[in-house]
């Protein structure tokens, strides 16, 4: 079932816009003068402008957690306030519908994504350079760790996305579980190492009155790889790096220590505990996760009448990697190449990247994509569930640029879970599991190459 919410946004770009911008040699006027020129072209804020025909933009999310409330407050309404003549409708496909299905049936006008490669493979991503120049978009305002990663997706210098926010990780912990077992909370303002979390987890992993408490949920190799900016595939050749990079041995050796904690693997051989185990079941004491993955759902849980005693601490890392945090996940906008309303979509994105709207993001617990330390002072102030939490710890630790991603990495990352399965369920040693996993990765990549 599709969720559809309509909001009035920006005016249809008619013949006036096309004629005004048809000269390839012209350039947009940056700054306030440029904004005024755009307003004049669009008939926004001018007494003489005629009403424009309404335009509906279809919006799609693939990858990031974006609640309906966040969609309304952070994307739809800000654009509505600037351009009141467009309808924005969110597309939410049924479970099991793939991104390929969406873009071959009802392609959106623009999307919010993490990894642009699926859209690049579909030849669906528009090169945004002409719009950046045309509308005087100031790229220098974007945080380099975000924008430099985005630039790596352009094979010939294309810019196929604009960052929306930086999705950073923090350490969440259930204070009630710490209190139950008489263990001291993680310290304020100080990064813990994963080695320290392992020891804390062992103290907190217990079974009491039939309830299995999990001390530390590491979230698997796909999370730990981001501590070390570690690719799964060689970014150029696509060859598996599971045997080539010793960091992979380190990652899975650490995970094995977690799995070997008495009581960690459940009676039904469960060894992976997700967000609901922390939030709803409240049986996980420590969980590292990105802000977008947790804050919105925690607030929705609070609104539903469910609250518990939790807090957050700085993002941890391996001991020899401190004070680094981990890769900052980039949530970015991509405009669909076949959209009939690319101009409108870009202007909407440009509005969301203003300081005013990025401050709104910060107030709603999303780290801004633009360089402006003042915005972070308001971080989380509009989210009731964060009241009294140590939100200043969000910014402790050095955020890292995401590793360069091969075009098929998203297609084979699930094999990392199979490596863990082999270790936990089959009793394989780390080296044997990595060899088997590496063979699977290379075989899967070769199959994908053959299909193209």
Automatic annotation (TrEMBL):
Listed Pfam families: SBP_bac_1
Tagged with keyword Acetylation: no
Assigned keywords, A-Z: Signal, Transport
Transmembrane segments: none
N-terminal signal peptide: 1-20
Coiled coil: none
PANTHER family given in the database record: ARABINOSE-BINDING PROTEIN-RELATED, DIACETYLCHITOBIOSE BINDING PROTEIN DASA
Family: Belongs to the bacterial solute-binding protein 1 family.
Protein name as annotated: ABC transporter substrate-binding protein
């Amino acid at each position: 079932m599709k969720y559809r919410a309509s909001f009035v946004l920006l005016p249809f770009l008619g013949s006036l816009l096309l004629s005004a911008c048809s000269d390839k040699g012209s350039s947009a006027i940056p700054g306030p003068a440029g904004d005024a020129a755009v307003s004049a072209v669009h008939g926004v804020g001018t007494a003489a402008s005629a009403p424009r025909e309404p335009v509906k933009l279809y919006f799609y999310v693939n990858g990031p957690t974006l609640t309906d409330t966040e969609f309304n407050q952070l994307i739809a309404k800000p654009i509505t306030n600037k351009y009141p003549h467009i309808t924005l409708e969110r597309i939410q496909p049924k479970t099991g519908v793939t991104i390929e299905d969406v873009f071959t049936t009802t392609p959106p006008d623009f999307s919010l994504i993490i990894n642009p490669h699926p859209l690049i493979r579909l030849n669906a991503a528009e090169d945004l350079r002409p719009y950046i120049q045309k509308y005087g978009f100031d790229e220098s305002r974007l945080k380099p760790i975000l924008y430099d990663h985005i630039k790596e997706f352009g094979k010939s210098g294309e810019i196929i996305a604009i960052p929306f926010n930086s999705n950073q990780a923090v350490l969440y912990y259930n204070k009630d579980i710490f209190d139950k077992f008489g263990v001291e909370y993680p310290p304020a303002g100080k990064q813990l190492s994963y080695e320290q979390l392992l020891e804390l987890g062992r103290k907190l992993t217990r079974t009491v009155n039939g309830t299995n408490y999990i001390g530390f949920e590491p979230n698997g190799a796909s999370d730990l790889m981001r501590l070390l900016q570690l690719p799964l595939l060689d970014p150029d050749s696509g060859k598996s790096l599971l045997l080539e990079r010793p960091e992979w041995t380190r990652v899975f050796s650490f995970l094995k220590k977690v799995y070997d904690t008495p009581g960690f693997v459940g009676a039904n051989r469960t060894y992976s505990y997700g967000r609901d185990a922390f939030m709803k079941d409240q049986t996980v004491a420590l969980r590292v996760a990105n802000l977008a993955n947790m804050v919105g759902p925690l607030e929705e849980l609070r609104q539903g009448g469910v609250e518990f005693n939790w807090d957050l601490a700085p993002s941890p890392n391996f001991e020899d990697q401190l004070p680094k945090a981990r890769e900052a996940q980039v949530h970015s906008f991509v405009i669909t190449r076949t959209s009939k309303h690319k101009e409108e979509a870009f202007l909407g994105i440009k509005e969301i990247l203003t300081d005013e709207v990025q401050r709104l993001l910060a107030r709603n617990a999303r780290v801004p994509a633009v360089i402006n330390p003042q915005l972070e002072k308001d971080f989380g102030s509009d989210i009731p569930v964060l009241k009294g939490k140590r939100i200043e710890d969000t910014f402790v630790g050095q955020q890292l640029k995401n590793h360069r991603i091969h075009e098929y990495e998203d297609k084979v990352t699930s094999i990392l879970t199979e490596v863990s399965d082999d270790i936990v369920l089959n009793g394989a040693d780390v080296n044997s599991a990595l060899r088997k996993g590496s063979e699977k990765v290379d075989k899967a990549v070769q199959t994908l190459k053959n299909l193209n």
